[in-house]
Amino acid sequence: MTLREQTIDSFLSQLESKAPVPGGGGASALCGALCVALTHMVAALTVGKPKYASVEAEMAEVLSKTEALKERLLSLMDEDAAAFEPLALAYRMPKETEEQKNEKARVMEAALKSAAQPPMRIMEVCAEAMTWIAVSAEKGSAIAVSDAGVAAALCRAALEGAAFNVFINTQIMADREYAETLNFRARQLLAQHGDEANEVVRKVTARLGA
Predict the structure, then answer these.
(1) What is the DSSP letter of 69?
(2) How far is Cα 158 from Cα 117, in angstroms, rounded to an integer?
(3) 3-class SS at 140?
(4) Binning pLDDT at 50, 70 and 90, where does residue 210 land?
(5) Over 80: is that where the pLDDT of 152 sits?
(6) What is the pLDDT of residues 75-88, one digit of tens each?
(7) Cα–Cα distance measured from residue 114 to residue 112, given in angstroms and rounded to the nearest whole number
(8) Which one of 108, 156, 178, 184 has the fewest beta carbons within 10 angstroms of its own beta carbon?
(9) Do 36 and 69 meet the contact criterion of CB atoms below 8 Å apart?
C-alpha cells in the first residue's frame, strides 16, 4: 500500500515509529497537499455565487490547478520514501577495508543526490501553489478567508520542511558545487514564496481583525 492510500491513523502510526519512512519529506508533501486542498475548497465555495461572478473564471482556474497540484504532492510522498530507501541502505554498508570505504562513498553520494530531489520538487510545487493561495485569499468567498489563511500557513510550513530535507542531504555531499546549487535553489524558493505566504497570512489576519 502506498503512503497516499493509507488511513490518517496508519500514516501517523508509521510516521511516529522508528521506520525510516515516512519522515519529514513525506510529512512536508502531505502538508503541501493539505494547503492546496484547502485552496480548492475556498474556490469551490466561490464558484457559482452571483456575488463573485466577476472572479468566476479565476476561481475555476484555481479549482483545476489545485487539483493537479494535490495529486502531484500526494505522489511526492511516495517518491520521497522511495528515494530515501537506497540512502538508508547505503548508511549500513560496511567500511572495514579501503575498498569498502570507497564503494560506500560512491553509493552514498549517488543516494544523497537522489534523496534530495523529491523535497526539492515538493518546494517547487508548493511555490506554484502560492499563486493560487494568494488568489483565493484575495478574491475567494469571504466566509472561507480563514481557510485561505490556513492554506498559506501550511504552504509556508511545507516549504520550510522540504527545505530542511534538501539541506540534510546536501550537507554531507562530496560534490560541493552540486550541493551548493541545490542549496541556492532551496533558499531562493524559501525566501520568495515563504515571504508570499507570510504576506497572505498578514492580510488574512488583518481581515479577521486579529
Answers:
(1) H
(2) 15
(3) coil
(4) confident
(5) yes
(6) 999 999 999 999 99
(7) 5
(8) 184
(9) yes
Mention every residue, 6+ apart, whose C-beta is less than 8 A from residue 77. 2, 3, 4, 22, 26, 29, 30, 33
State the sign of the Cα–Cα–Cα–Cα dihedral 78, 82, 87, 92: positive
Contacts of 183 (CB under 8 A, 6+ apart): 166, 167, 170
- All structural domains of the chain with their residue ranges: 23-86+116-207
Residues 6+ apart with CB under 8 A from 108: 87, 90, 91, 93, 172
Phi, psi of 99 (to 5 degrees): -65, -40
pLDDT reported for residue 102: 92
Q: How far apart are CA 188 and CA 172, in angstroms?
A: 20
Q: Pick one of 1.10.10.10, 3.30.70.2570, 1.20.120.680, 3.30.420.270 as the CATH number of 23-86+116-207.
A: 1.20.120.680
Grid cell 519522515 — which residue?
23
Contact 80, 122 (CB under 8 A): yes
Distance CA(176)–CA(94), nearest Å, equals 24
pTM: 0.95
